[in-house]
């Protein structure tokens, strides 16, 4: 998916820093090859690009990544926070290391790179952030407490950036993509239900995410900020954001007993079920 985004941005005229630490899905075996391969593709097509292999999970390395854009091209206008990892485990079996590793890349990484670019965006009175969130965080999934928490955090981070940097003409939006990628390919497929889910995911083309990223990054989308979108093959979604659904009021104040007797029954018909992403997106991708 990152390769597709880099190629599409370059084709639209952007000068691209292609970042990839070159690790396996398990985080092992660092290899600088993938980033350089995408750069070679961009250059072969007549575009401009440079490779970077710093880790978004590290504050200093994220700043070095942004500095690489300044050094190579003189400025930075767009940040796409696409880096992500999974370490799936049922919550009561999830280790501290599995939780911390996912949050470090997915959420802290998005903060590190965004924060490194922010002073440049502010100084030039303009810039665009596109953050990759997930329906796992927006809706829910089994065995992904770490991933869901990090990706819901990314959506909140995007909104906060949009609010804080609006005065500097900086836009920030989030996209929840559906795509069959190397990361998604690590999902367990041990049961018939899991196997059916994986077969459906294989229909999701990662390059289909790129056009929407390019559109959000363009000047023509200058009025679009603080939103959460979804892209699944040829479908594009606009997600809701939390708003008040029901209210309960009493002039006497509430006690635990009156809350149990009155408020919870009043709200119960509007409680959300424990749905997973697949329960909401039940139709085949188009």
Question: What is this structure's SSE topology?
Answer:
Blueprint: H1 2-11, E1 16-19, H2 33-44, E2 49-52, H3 59-73, E3 78-81, H4 96-124, E4 127-132, H5 135-138, H6 145-164, E5 170-178, H7 192-201, H8 210-217, E6 228-232, E7 235-238, H9 256-267, H10 277-280
Parallel strand pairs: 1-2, 3-4, 4-5, 5-6
Antiparallel strand pairs: 6-7
Quick rundown:
InterPro entries: KR_dom, NAD(P)-bd_dom_sf, Peroxisomal_Beta-Oxidation, Sc_DH/Rdtase_CS, SDR_fam. With 286 residues, the chain is of the alpha/beta class.
Number of strands: 7
By CATH, the topology is Rossmann fold
Shape: globular
| Helix-strand sequence | HEHEHEHEHHEHHEEHH
The CATH homologous superfamily corresponds to NAD(P)-binding Rossmann-like Domain
Q: Quote the distance from N terminus to C terminus.
A: 18 Å
Integer-rounded radius of gyration: 21 Å
The CATH class turns out to be Alpha Beta
CATH-defined architecture: 3-Layer(aba) Sandwich
Percent of residues in helices: 40-55%
Structural class: alpha/beta
Number of domains: 1
As laid out across the biggest beta sheet, the strand order is: 3-4-5-6-7
Strand content: 5-15%
What is the arithmetic mean of pLDDT?
93
Main β-sheet: number of strands, strand sense, barrel status? 5 strands, mixed
What count of helical segments does DSSP give?
A: 10
Poorly predicted residue ranges:
none
InterPro entries: KR_dom (IPR057326), NAD(P)-bd_dom_sf (IPR036291), Peroxisomal_Beta-Oxidation (IPR051687), Sc_DH/Rdtase_CS (IPR020904), SDR_fam (IPR002347)
Domain Ketoreductase: 2-186
Protein name: 3-hydroxyacyl-CoA dehydrogenase
Organism: Castellaniella defragrans (strain DSM 12143 / CCUG 39792 / 65Phen)
